[in-house]
Input
Amino acid sequence: MRKGSIKSTQINMEVKREISHIIHDELKDPRVHPMTSVLDCEATTDLKQCKVFVSVLSDEEDIKRTMEGLKKAAPFIRKRLAETVNLRNTPELKFIHDDRISYGVYMSHLIEKVTEEDQKKHADEGGEEREDD
Output
């Protein structure tokens, strides 16, 4: 199986979907924050290892606790994955924090702030020109 092939993409999508389901519905670890999202999975071509990219919408301490909880729960998640997904090998899971969602929210707030300031600036300039007329 080549990296980037249709089969590889399908396996990654299925693994992502199942891991997300396991984390939200079956994992009872209190360290794992409820706002944890599985963004992507990248299984190696031999299906021995899989990087699982997760995002946590919370503060740094919750992120640290969640990543610790996921690391400790990796054997359980792998076992449940083996039971639900029919793969030749069930990959070892490595959870990696990915802050794409929080970065996107941050950038959206910055764009909104700049847009509001720009509209206010244009409104103030428009008001000054009318006074000169």
